[in-house]
């Protein structure tokens, strides 16, 4: 039985002052060869940095098809740099993916530098298995940040650019500022206290992980900080960017990550017939309703015909003309299709006609009887 091949990817970490890279064993998060570091060209234009990355990759024997991940100090959206922190501003709008792929001859996957470091810490370092909100803050030339909620990355969370002391926080408390201003650990820690207190207030994290090259000296400043949130040094130290870039490149190029190759779920395929059945029932119900309506109309028509046939018999019966007229009008109203459809018309006809025939007739009969009685009384008195 053949032994499973160890997944290997190549990680490159581009920073404002240096570019470093190495192959990574993705089962352990360990470098499989000593990392190589070269200085970031100054000015750090796209062409100059791309040439430096090409030279770094060429110093390793990287097999074709090996995923190559690259971190970059900027907001990265679909491989394009949207900002430029600590590198030349000409990077803004540059397709970093395409540029480095063309220059190195390898398929390159680019990611924000702090996001890559955060992925490494969550997969192999201090953040393993941690839930809730975890912040990975990298202290270097600038300040990078990676935010995770229940282990899921919230990309491009540029917390190094939070406003502090009238400017971006990184210009006040980055590791490079400590060196440039020759701050003591105590004075620098006071600046870190202000920054981390702000971050804690805004995000209420469950854990803060501090990375970057300075993290190897964490005992000189982390114990000086007073926070409610646990704050710990990164487990991978300054190699987190390389490891995270390699891990993300492997995920991006893995066949299982290709959504287009994922078959549609089987339950969805079974839903089509189910939607047709109710439709056929509705259709059947509609046919039943139509048949019922047809039978109703047929019954009404039969009733109307019966009424028409019985009408002459009523006219022939000995009765007053008014009664005959009323019967005839009622029969006519019953058999008329338009009267059947319009309820108000039927009520109007039945209300007016009996009133015009019955009441006048009944008023004349008492008057005639009164005249006859008066005439008889008069004759009797004369006699």
Overview in brief:
By secondary structure, this protein is of the alpha/beta class. The protein has eleven helices and 15 strands.
Architecture overview:
The protein is of the alpha/beta class and about 375 residues long. Helices cover about 50% and strands about 15% of the residues. The strands form 4 sheets. Strands 1, 2, 3, 4, 5 and 8 form a 6-stranded mixed sheet that branches. Helix 1 crosses helix 2, helix 3 packs across helix 7 and helix 8 runs antiparallel to helix 9. The protein is globular, with a radius of gyration of 47 Å.
Beta-strand share of residues: 15-25%
CATH class of one domain: Alpha Beta
Largest sheet: 6 strands, mixed
What's the helical proportion of residues? 40-55%
Poorly predicted regions: 257-383
Please tally the helical runs, counting DSSP H or I stretches of 4 or more residues: 11
Shape: globular
Report the order of strands and helices: EEEEHEEEHEHEEEEEHHHEEHHHHH
> What is the CATH homology-level superfamily of one domain?
ATPase, nucleotide binding domain
The termini sit apart by 148 Å
Helices and strands: which structural class?
alpha/beta
User: Architecture of one domain, CATH level 2?
Assistant: 2-Layer Sandwich
Radius of gyration: 47 Å
Number of strands: 15
Mean pLDDT score: 76
CATH fold-type name of one domain: Nucleotidyltransferase, domain 5
């Amino acid at each position: 039985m053949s032994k499973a091949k160890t997944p290997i990817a190549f990680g490159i970490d581009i920073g404002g002052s240096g570019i470093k890279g190495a192959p990574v064993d993705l089962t352990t998060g360990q470098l499989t060869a000593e990392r190589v570091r070269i200085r970031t060209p100054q000015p750090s234009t796209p062409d100059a940095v791309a040439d430096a990355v090409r030279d770094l990759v060429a110093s390793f024997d990287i097999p074709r098809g090996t995923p190559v991940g690259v971190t970059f100090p900027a907001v990265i959206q679909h491989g394009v740099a949207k900002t430029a922190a600590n590198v030349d501003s000409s990077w803004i709008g540059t397709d970093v993916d395409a540029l480095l792929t063309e220059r190195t001859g390898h398929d390159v996957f680019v990611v924000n530098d702090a996001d890559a470091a955060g992925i490494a810490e969550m997969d192999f370092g201090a953040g393993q298995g941690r839930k809730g909100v975890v912040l990975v803050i990298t202290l270097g030339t600038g300040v990078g940040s990676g935010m995770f909620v229940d282990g899921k990355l919230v990309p491009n969370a540029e917390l190094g650019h939070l406003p502090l002391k009238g400017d971006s926080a990184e210009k006040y408390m980055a590791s490079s500022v400590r060196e440039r201003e020759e701050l003591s650990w105590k004075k620098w820690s006071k600046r870190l206290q202000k920054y981390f207190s702000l971050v804690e207030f805004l995000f209420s994290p469950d854990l803060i992980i501090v990375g970057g090259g300075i993290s190897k000296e964490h005992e000189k400043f982390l114990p000086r900080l007073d926070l409610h949130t646990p704050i710990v040094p990164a487990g991978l130290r300054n190699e987190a960017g390389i490891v995270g870039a390699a891990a993300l490149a492997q995920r991006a190029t893995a066949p299982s990550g290709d959504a287009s190759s994922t078959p549609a779920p089987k339950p969805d395929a079974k839903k089509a017939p189910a939607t047709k059945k109710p439709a056929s029932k509705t259709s059947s119900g509609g046919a039943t309703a139509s048949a019922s309506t047809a039978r109703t109309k047929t019954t009404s028509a039969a009733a109307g015909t019966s009424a028409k046939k019985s009408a002459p018999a009523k006219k022939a019966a000995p009765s007053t003309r008014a009664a005959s007229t009323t019967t005839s009008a009622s029969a006519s109203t019953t058999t008329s299709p338009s009267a059947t459809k319009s309820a108000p018309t039927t009520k109007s006809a039945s209300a007016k006609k009996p009133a015009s025939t019955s009441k006048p007739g009944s008023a004349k009969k008492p008057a005639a009887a009164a005249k006859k009685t008066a005439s008889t009384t008069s004759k009797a008195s004369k006699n």
